[in-house]
């Protein structure tokens, strides 16, 4: 009886249920981040990994292609994480960018940003090609995922990639973000992370705001805003170039 | 009013998507070209313009900030509905692509930062 009422409430209030479920996942990730990794791996990265794990469970249980969203109880997740709200929220993050401060990053930040977009893309496309993905859409989507885990799905969504390629693309971006978070403090000396300028270069090349801010926080707290400032442009630049210029280049080459 | 901020965000979003679609058509494709990126640029310029003319109050701004802050949870929800089962069949592509790009970018960071003149460092040595 109780379960039926609960199920009905969740089904009829899909989006609200999604808010509660995602909030719970974020809460758990925050605790895991603090207690198990001592803040080394940012909570948001763990939350995304849990999300992907839940998508696996949902996919196995339903046999569908939309992960947890295929289970009627969690259908609201489909709306919350769908294209509309995702793009809406990403556009909103541009509000935090200060144009005057961005100018301070100067040309070296811009060069790092461009390299940080193009280099991972080339690596991603090359790996995708080596593993037998020969169509331009799949190669571009996986390459875009190597830029950040946001650019991947935005690009894939725009050029019409299949869901499994999208998932691969997100997985690439998430693994990259986690690698940046964990390896930055270890590699700080090799990367010469000492000055604001060096942090800007790092922010532009390493991309992924979560990876950069968490990695720099564990290295030297003072450097965080400089790296994050450049990194905030990363998603925008990637979303601009991914489905356009980069896709055209890949399509022309295939 | 808080809705002004959210409405500004919505208008920038829609304009960006429309311009992206038009750009796509102009380039001879049916897909959206950089619509999200264009929308972000529009929002940055709109913010600068409204700040200069002093027409953006803190309450209106919070109507945008909320959505900016909700983006990580939205990405988590997005992760929850991916076809992970199919992705895992793709094998080590994600891992290799991620490790490869981190290594390549790390080398470039190290290289560029080594070119930085010592005198340009504004921070005192520890």
Would you give an account of this structure?
- The complex is a heterodimer of chains A (254) and B (126).
- Chain A has 254 residues and is mostly helical.
- Chain A has twelve helices and no strands.
- The N and C termini of chain A lie far apart (58 Å).
- The mean pLDDT of chain A is 84.
- Chain B has two domains: 1-81, no CATH class; 82-115.
- Helices cover 74% and strands 0% of the residues of chain B.
- Chain B contains six helices and no strands.
- In chain B, helix 1 (2-26) packs across helix 3.
- At the A-B interface, helix 2, helix 3, helix 4, helix 5 and helix 6 of A face helix 1, helix 2, helix 3, helix 4 and helix 5 of B.
Describe the protein's topology:
The complex is a heterodimer of chains A (254) and B (126).
Chain A: H1 2-12, H2 14-35, H3 43-62, H4 76-80, H5 83-93, H6 99-130, H7 136-145, H8 151-159, H9 163-191, H10 196-206, H11 209-219, H12 224-253
Chain B: H1 2-26, H2 35-52, H3 58-69, H4 71-80, H5 84-89, H6 93-114
Short overview:
Chain A is an all-alpha fold and 254 residues long.
Mean pLDDT of chain A: 84
Most extensive chain interface and residues per partner: A-B, 115 and 77 residues
Query: Quick one: how many beta strands of chain B?
Result: 0
Query: What structural category do the secondary elements of chain A indicate?
Result: mainly alpha
Please mark out the parts of chain B with pLDDT under 50 across 5 or more consecutive residues, or reply none.
Answer: 119-126
Output the helix-strand order of chain B.
HHHHHH
Radius of gyration of chain B: 21 Å
The number of distinct structural domains of chain B comes to 2
